[in-house]
Structure formats: C-alpha cells, structure tokens
Recover the amino acids of this structure.
C-alpha cells in the first residue's frame, strides 16, 4: 500500500520560491514524483525548507526511491540552516544509525540545536540523553531543564519525566507539589502511568 506523503513544514520566508510553490501544489495533488523534481531545483538553490522536504521524501519513499543515506544528506543541508525539524530528524538518524553510522555525540549535538530553537520533541530527547549519559556527560539537572521546557509545551512524556524528577529529587530539590502538578497534567492527557503515580503521591501527601 502506498505510503502517504509526509506533511511538509515550510518556513514563511521559503515560500516565495516558485519551485517550492510548485512542489507544494503537486504534493497536495498526490503527484509526489513531480514534486520531488521541483524540490530538487529549489534545494539546489539553497532553499532549506525544500532540502528538508526532499529529505522527508527519501525517508518515506514518496516520489523517489526510499534512501535513508540521501535523507540524511538533505536533512544535514537543512539542519545547517537552522530548520529545527531537520535538526531533530538528523539527530534521530545519528541516534538510531539510520542512513549513517550511529553516533550519540552527533545525535545530542543536533537535538541540542533543535532544542534551543524551541522544539519540544528535541528537548525531550536531549533530556533523555542527559539522563542516560548518551553522547553527553550524565547530568540530571540539565536533563530536568530540558524536560521542563518540553513539558511546558505540553509534551506528555516530558511532563511525566519532570514529575519523576521532582518526586525523586534527581537534579533538583525534591518537591512533591511540583511532582503532583506535572503528573496531573500528564494524567489529563491520558498517561496511565502518570494516573497511577498521581494517585499514590496524593495518598502520601494526605
């Protein structure tokens, strides 16, 4: 079964490129192969949104043969131009060893750049790397810093991780009220483990 073409995030400043406009229209019409040709033209002219978009097509095999090494190549071009989604996806490629050699240091580097641009998913991933010491020196305080940034954007996993940190005192002063707050937010999003932890914690506080 044909995989649906990925949603293409395009920066406002990159939308004036005629080749990019043509590519987006073709993608919406389901004409992925034709769109890929226009994305290549736009990408060769340095359009970072086109570079990321082309990387996504290679990663999913839409309009072009599936090729993770080519995806990494185009993610890299876009990541260097501060496309946060490309930085996050490139980080995942290095973390998983998809289309390139596994490299936790490079994964953490690209997650870090995307995290600084405010991408919640990257903030969560960077926090996890600080928790485990993968690609960076283990640092619970830094892990919590990034978890909390992602949690404030509504990331349910980050909300849970933030709650755990405040409950255990890892990287911060133990604070059961803050733990309760973050567990409750995660629970409201349907996180079953957060619901269980919240119930236990409320009984302790009472």
């Amino acid at each position: 079964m044909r995989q649906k073409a990925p949603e293409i995030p395009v920066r406002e400043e990159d939308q004036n490129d005629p080749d990019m406009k043509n590519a987006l229209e073709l993608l919406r019409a389901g004409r992925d192969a034709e769109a890929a040709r226009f994305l290549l033209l736009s990408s060769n002219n340095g359009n970072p949104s086109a570079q990321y978009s082309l990387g996504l097509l290679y990663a999913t095999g839409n309009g072009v043969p599936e090729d993770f090494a080519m995806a990494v190549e185009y993610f890299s071009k876009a990541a260097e131009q501060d496309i946060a989604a490309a930085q996050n996806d490139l980080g995942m490629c290095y973390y998983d060893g998809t289309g390139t050699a596994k490299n936790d240091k490079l994964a953490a580097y690209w997650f870090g750049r995307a995290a600084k641009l405010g991408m919640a998913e990257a903030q969560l991933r960077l926090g996890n790397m600080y928790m485990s010491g993968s690609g960076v020196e283990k640092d619970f305080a830094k892990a919590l810093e990034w978890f909390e940034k992602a949690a404030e954007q509504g990331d349910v996993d980050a909300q849970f991780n933030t709650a755990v940190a405040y409950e255990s005192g890892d990287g911060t002063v133990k604070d059961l009220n803050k733990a309760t707050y973050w567990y409750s937010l995660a629970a409201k999003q349907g996180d079953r483990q957060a619901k269980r932890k919240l119930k236990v914690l409320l009984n302790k506080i009472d």
The first helix runs from residue 18 to 28. The domain at 1-117 is CATH 1.25.40.10 (Serine Threonine Protein Phosphatase 5, Tetratricopeptide repeat). The chain has eleven helices and no strands.
